[in-house]
Fold this protein.
Amino acid sequence: MRHQPVVSLDHLSEGELAAKLDPELLPKHVAVIMDGNGRWAELRGLPRIEGHREGINSVREMISLCLELGIQALTIYAFSQENWNRPSQEINALMGLLEHYLSTERTGLIEQQVRFRAIGRLELLPPSARHWVRRTEQETAHLDKMTLTVALSYGGRSEIVDAVRGLLADVQAGAIEGERIDETLFQQYLYTHPLPDPDLLIRTSGETRISNFLLWQLAYTELCFTPTLWPDFRRREFLLALLEYQKRERRFGRILSAISS
């Protein structure tokens, strides 16, 4: 592994940080575990939902910067299957916030040519929330400047199980021969198909685990963990994460001489 001298970037402005980016080395797909909303609110003596509400501003800034930089896909972990175990009051507030976001941001997504997709076991969502999810998907399905994927009622293990079920059903129906099954074919049954695997995963709040998120897709993804709480993760923090990503050598199990040749 190549070691580079540590150079502080704290004194640089957002514009100077952006100027340091190499357009040829930007990730095509960024995934984010948006962690720390509740802690952000609690530190300020606010209800936990206020942290989630403030976190929406971070989502807006990430979408805006992805569009500016030409990053093609952004996938965010919004609500896990495990989150259904939270108090009903918090779940109801989160579902209401989801509906509010989709009802108010939908027009902006269309204007920015952003396609919206939701992945997960969406049948578990309340009917009203599911309505807004499907409506936003339908109204943005033709857009192609960027894809925003929101993981809702999502679990990585469940995704793999659902993919196996879908593949098995097609084998039993005679649509696919068992001998044809390989990694490429299997990937077509994942929720994220046809997106490429994420190049970069960012997790905020200081936790250093992937929490059942995109287990198959993250096999060769670069991981970036930051202590910044999600509502404080804005353009500057995203630029710093991208600069950190560009220092990495993505070898995919190969050696450098094999890549350069």
